[in-house]
Amino acid sequence: MKVQNLCTFSKHILTLTDSANVANIIQNYTKTNQLKKAKQLHSQLIITGYPLCTYLTNHLINMYSKCRELDYAVKLFDKMPVRNLVSWTAMITGFSQNQNFVEAITTFCNMRIAQESPNQFAFSSVIRACVSLGFVEFGRQLHCLALKCGFGCELFVGSNLADMYSKCGVIRDACKVFEEMDCTDEVLWTAMIDGYAKNGDFEGALLAYKRMVNEGVVIDHYVLSSTLSACGALKASESGKCLHSVVVKLGYELEISVKNALTDMYSKVRDMEGSLNVFQFDSEPRNIVSYTSLIDGYVEMDQIERAVNTFVELRRQGIEPNEFTFSSLIKGCANQAALDQGIQLHAQVIRFNFDRNPFVSSILVDMYGKCGLLDDSIRVFDDIDKPTEFAWNSLISVFAQHGLGNEALETLDRMIHRGVKPNEITFVSLLTGCSHAGLIDEGLSHFNSMEKTYGVVPREEHYSCVIDLLGRSGRLNEAEEFIKNMPFEPNAFGWCSFLGACRIHGDKERGKIAAEKLMQLEPENSGAHVLLSNIYAKEQQWEDVKNLRKMMRDANVKKLPGYSWVDAGNKIHIFGVEDWSHPQTKEIYEKLDGLLDKIKEAGYIPCTESIPLNVDEQTKGKLLHHHSERIAIAFALISIPVGKPIIVKKNLRVCADCHSAIKYISKVVNRKIIVRDNSRFHHFADGLCSCGDYW
Description:
Elements: H1 3-14, H2 19-31, H3 35-47, H4 54-66, H5 70-79, H6 85-97, H7 101-113, H8 120-133, H9 136-148, H10 155-167, H11 171-180, H12 186-198, H13 202-214, H14 221-234, H15 237-250, H16 256-268, H17 272-280, H18 288-300, H19 304-316, H20 323-336, H21 339-351, H22 358-370, H23 374-382, H24 389-401, H25 405-417, H26 424-437, H27 440-454, H28 460-472, H29 476-484, H30 492-505, H31 508-521, H32 527-538, H33 542-554, E1 563-568, E2 571-576, H34 585-601, H35 617-625, H36 628-639, E3 646-650, H37 656-669, E4 673-676, E5 681-685, E6 688-689
Parallel strand pairs: 3-4
Antiparallel strand pairs: 1-2, 1-3, 4-5, 5-6
């Protein structure tokens, strides 16, 4: 500033007759964020010897805090000879607003030591600090103090208390605070709805929204965003569409948070047309959340190509992906076992420095495992500095999918030793791994220790895993007793596991009971009819097979067609049973026939029991020879170079005959073949399978 300007400025200061005028100027600079001018004013006050009373110092502390110059505020506060309630409150608020949460709590405690009684603003600021730090117990103490000081039902304090309890996962206490309030406003309602949604009580969020509307409380974009999130989680399509109408009526359709919530809601209810319409409504308010919501929807719909295309588009727009974008895309690759795309995304993850992100790394562990590359999955896990429960669960799940029960158990021991507590998901994977590996006693032991040792209450899926564990091993009597003693009826997966075990071990009577139960739960599921038909066919009860097929026709139940697919040349090639549609059909079937001759010479004998048809053995053998997984393997052998893994995926359980044939194929062609069916991986090499013929 020039000398003349300084003189003018000094004269202006000297004409001030009282502190109120100076305070007003400081306040105006604070509101307009004019830090430079505020500092000049502060300098002139010091130079001219203007007395900095407590009143003015409080305004300066508030100004520096709000302008994010906290060091200046702290120095002023520390030098104050006399502090009042406003001084303490300004400092606590300054620390809280600048994310110095521990200092905010410490200053509040020092205020109490100084025997200063807090006001509603001090309470609100320190409660917000507790929210950010997750200090719910200290928050409870503040709640008690607020009640003692007469602020428990004050709207500002109550809103922050409800927000703290809900964000810390104590939704019951949040509800108590809410119900005890004499009056409520949109801030308190928003805190409750957001709390319900974030704690997984989505129905509670919708009910709270309806109460809010009925009481005539003003609806804002925060409320709409949280309620739309609840609709998406509940797959409540109609409620979501009604809220969309409210959004349009209130003019919030261009509000970015609401637009993102709408895109996400439509994606979660599997209405991608609606999601795309919202997304494309106006190109201006779009960010990474908008794109990630759309990608999530495509992934849920198994439309991985569209998800990847959306990713390409967001990069073209100059938007940088975040960890949620990558997690969703990699999850899609894992579900589709799209290895090539997954590897490319892994490269992008490294490029954007998300390879150390625990969430993204956990998804990568899962992706490589689901694509059959067990060693790569382990390598990614080993590169994680501090594995979270997500990473440990991913690795245990990978071992389970590959039938490596002992490795899954060892990983659980390592997880516990590293101080990470197992949860419900951990035990589902662990029990699955024990089931596939035939580790009956170990599986039962861990099931029985879930609640006693780890405080994890077994749920439906855990009981279903035990049914599968006992049934797969042939202990059908024990499985039946276990079902009778369960605290609830088995779910569809439980009955399906029991029915599958009855088919493997030829127990017709128990199989009929299981099939009837499964048909009651899922009348449109063809699995029960097919498995029961296989049991009858094995016993050559062709009349019963015929009756079952008639029952399926009458009920319009269609058998799920088996198909297999394989990645080659950056393209997914899909094959059905006796599939003649591929452009390379001639070469594929020539290879397939050549393989049959070779494996027969090596000792292969068709296992025709798995064909539930009353036809001659030669016809059965021909049908088996043209199963989708064999066609896919023949194609892979002529398309994928030696040295690259052959990974075939199938939507149904691989049949006993194909399992036997692939073992022989791996031997005669001297290549490793990995097959992922609907329950696990099989690694075939040199005439053997990793499952040890136990699957």
